[in-house]
Amino acid sequence: MGLANRCIPLNPGEIRLTTATTSIDTHLTPEVLLSRMQSASTPAISPDGREVVYVISRVDPGSLASTSHLWLMHIDTGEAHQLTHTGTSNTAPAWSPDGTRIAFVSNRPDAGR
């Protein structure tokens, strides 16, 4: 999985959405912006340089609620997986100096801490 979708402008009102696996031409509409777009931010490379943790943010088109979760990618292979699954806001990842832990800010319920 790539870090984020890319938007390539075509004609006025049209874009090409590109991910690691697909590319489609579409009209730019509010629905497209909300349901097909995501953004990657706040990358933090591990102290040994082998992994990067980052935040993927999306908007649910039904509720218009935004969610952000942490993802971890192995730099050599490009293999990525989601680290957080609870809470709707998981941000600001930072590695411990020895690279064994990742601290982050979350709105998880108290029981999940």
Brief account:
Helix content is 5%, strand content 48%.
Secondary-structure topology with pairs:
Layout: E1 6-9, E2 14-18, E3 23-27, H1 30-35, E4 38-45, E5 51-59, E6 66-74, E7 80-82, E8 90-95, E9 102-106
Antiparallel strand pairs: 1-2, 2-3, 4-5, 5-6, 6-7, 8-9
Q: What are its keywords?
A:
single chain; 113 residues; mainly beta; four-stranded antiparallel beta sheet; three-stranded antiparallel beta sheet; 1 helix; disordered N terminus
Tell me about this structure.
The chain is mostly beta strands and 113 residues long. Helices cover 5% and strands 48% of the residues. The protein is built from one helix and nine strands; from the N terminus they run βββαββββββ. The chain has one helix at residues 30-35, and strands at 6-9, 14-18, 23-27, 38-45, 51-59, 66-74, 80-82, 90-95, 102-106. A four-stranded antiparallel β-sheet has the order 4-5-6-7, with no helix packed on it. Strands 1-2-3 form a three-stranded antiparallel β-sheet, with no helix packed on it. A two-stranded antiparallel ribbon has the order 8-9. A hairpin with a 4-residue loop joins strand 1 (6-9) and strand 2 (14-18). The chain is globular and about 45 Å long. Mean pLDDT is 79; it is low at 1-5.
Order of strands across the biggest sheet?
4-5-6-7
Largest sheet: 4 strands, antiparallel
Distance between the termini: 28 Å
* Number of contiguous helices: 1
Morphology call = globular
Beta fraction of the residues?
over 45%
Q: Total strand count, please?
A: 9
In angstroms, what is the radius of gyration? 16 Å
* Approximate helicity band: under 10%
Quote the average pLDDT: 79
Structural class: mainly beta
Topology pattern, helix = H, strand = E: EEEHEEEEEE
Residue windows where pLDDT falls under 50 for at least 5 positions: 1-5
